[in-house]
Every structure is written in C-alpha cells, then in structure tokens.
C-alpha cells in the first residue's frame, strides 16, 4: 500500500506557500513567516517536544495529532529557509542503503 504522506505534504507545502503573503492578522502561517526564521524554529522545537512526549506516553491519537503539528511547523520552517521537501527527500535518498551509524560518523568529521 502506498502511503498518503507524500500527497499530504505536497498539499501542505502549497497551502503554506500560498499563505506567505497573506495578512498576518488573519493567517497563522503568514504570522509565523513574518516573525522570521528563529520564531519558526522555536515553534517547530516546541512541537517536537510535544510529539516526543506523546510518543513516550504511548497515546496513539495524541501522537498522530502532535505529529501533524510537527510536520506543519517543519514545513513552515523549511519555507522560511527556502528549502523544499524535495530537497529533504533527496537527502534521504542519498542516505538510503547506508547504515545510520556510518552515515552519522561521516558527518562528525
């Protein structure tokens, strides 16, 4: 079965791009982007912690909801930095077939 995440991320990315120029008083996405990269990063970090806690507690519904929040805030942070999910996918593809331990060691030089 093919995962739906690619389509969901494509749609999310398009909505974020479209809202970049919206009025920050009416669009949360526009507000985050107008506040800059550091604010976007802070919000993504907060969501990462909430996602990790939901995972540690084993609450599937909460973990799914927090994961959606995390992916949204990651997409906003990527947009703020001019990076696409395609670039992230390319990085993942480069790492495919490489042990995680070996890949991490290659970055620690």
UniProtKB/TrEMBL annotation:
GO terms for biological process: L-histidine biosynthetic process. GO terms for cellular component: cytoplasm. Its EC number is 3.6.1.31. Keywords: Amino-acid biosynthesis, ATP-binding, Cytoplasm, Histidine biosynthesis, Hydrolase, Nucleotide-binding. It catalyses: 1-(5-phospho-beta-D-ribosyl)-ATP + H2O = 1-(5-phospho-beta-D-ribosyl)-5'-AMP + diphosphate + H(+). One of its GO terms (molecular function) is ATP binding. Gene3D superfamilies: MazG-like. Signal peptide: none annotated. This is Phosphoribosyl-ATP pyrophosphatase. PANTHER family: HISTIDINE BIOSYNTHESIS BIFUNCTIONAL PROTEIN, HISTIDINE BIOSYNTHESIS BIFUNCTIONAL PROTEIN HISIE. It comes from the Bacteria. Belongs to the PRA-PH family. It is found in: Cytoplasm. It is an enzyme of class 3 (hydrolase). Pathway: Amino-acid biosynthesis; L-histidine biosynthesis; L-histidine from 5-phospho-alpha-D-ribose 1-diphosphate: step 2/9. The gene is hisE.
């Amino acid at each position: 079965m093919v995962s739906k995440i690619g389509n969901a991320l494509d749609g999310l990315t398009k909505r974020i791009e479209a809202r970049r120029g919206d009025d920050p008083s009416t669009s949360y996405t526009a507000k985050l982007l107008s506040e800059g990269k550091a604010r976007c990063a802070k919000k993504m970090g907060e969501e990462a912690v909430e996602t990790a806690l939901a995972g540690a507690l084993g609450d599937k519904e909460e973990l799914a909801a927090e994961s959606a929040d995390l992916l949204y805030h990651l997409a906003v942070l990527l947009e703020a930095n001019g990076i696409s999910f395609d670039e992230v996918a390319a990085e993942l593809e480069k790492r495919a077939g490489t042990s995680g331990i070996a890949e991490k060691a290659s970055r620690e030089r």
